[in-house]
């Protein structure tokens, strides 16, 4: 019976090991400088010269929606500044991303990575993936999927 539980746990954990290792290896490294076009047609640089959260997401991604709405609630409650968050949509058309952002009432910056070049540069394997980048361009934290500590981390990091 115990070996069945071990097998089931391994079945779910083994595919995640490369992503988990990458997350830990990325923390403390310098973020590559890139320009991101926003849905407002502005170019935003990463790193931004201030503490920032960068969220890689997709309109079809359920966990992304949960995390982005959590971020939006923090902004609406004035617990974090709206300009400290940049959510980058991966491989989706401007029209789809813009419509989604307007319908959801996102208060943060929304960027586009149509060809996934930024995602490839940052080794983003899944959505949502969240990076916390300091004012010197160092990646302080990287996580993928739903994060139970996201709100607490954002409040403490971006205040």
Q: What global shape is seen? A: globular
Tally of distinct domains: 1
Mean pLDDT: 89
What count of helical segments does DSSP give?
A: 6
Annotated CATH topology = Glutaredoxin
Amino- and carboxy-terminal Cα gap = 49 Å
Describe this protein's structure:
The chain is an alpha/beta fold and 159 residues long. The protein has a single domain (26-158), classed as 3-Layer(aba) Sandwich (Glutaredoxin), CATH 3.40.30. It is built from 6 helices and 7 strands, in the order H-H-E-E-E-H-E-H-E-H-E-E-H. A 7-stranded mixed sheet has the order 2-1-5-4-3-6-7. It starts with a helix and ends with a helix.
Q: Short summary of the structure?
A:
This protein is α/β, with parallel strands linked by helices and about 160 residues long. The protein has one domain (about 25-159): Glutaredoxin (3-Layer(aba) Sandwich). The chain has helices spanning about 1-15, 15-25, 60-75, 95-105, 115-120, 150-159, and strands at about 35-40, 45, 50-55, 85-90, 110-115, 130-135, 140-145.
Structure keywords:
159 residues, alpha/beta, Glutaredoxin
List the helices and strands and how they pair.
Layout: H1 2-13, H2 17-26, E1 34-38, E2 43-46, E3 52-57, H3 62-76, E4 85-90, H4 94-104, E5 109-113, H5 117-121, E6 129-133, E7 139-144, H6 150-158
Parallel strand pairs: 3-4, 4-5
Antiparallel strand pairs: 1-2, 1-5, 3-6, 6-7
Helix pairs in contact: 3-6
């Amino acid at each position: 019976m115990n070996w069945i539980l071990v097998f089931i746990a391994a079945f779910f954990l083994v595919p995640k090991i490369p992503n988990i290792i990458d997350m830990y290896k990325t923390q403390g490294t310098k973020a590559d400088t890139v320009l991101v076009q926003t849905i407002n047609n502005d170019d935003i640089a990463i790193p931004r010269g201030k503490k920032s959260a960068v969220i890689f997401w997709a309109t079809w991604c359920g966990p992304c929606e949960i995390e982005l709405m959590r971020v939006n609630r923090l902004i609406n409650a004035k617990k974090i500044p709206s300009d400290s968050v940049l959510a980058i949509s991966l491989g989706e058309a401007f029209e789809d991303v813009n419509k989604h952002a307007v319908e959801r009432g996102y208060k943060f910056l929304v960027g586009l990575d149509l060809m996934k070049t930024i995602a490839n540069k940052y080794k983003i394997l899944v959505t949502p993936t969240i990076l916390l980048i300091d004012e010197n361009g160092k990646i302080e934290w990287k996580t993928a999927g739903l994060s139970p500590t996201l709100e607490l981390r954002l409040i403490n990091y971006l205040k």
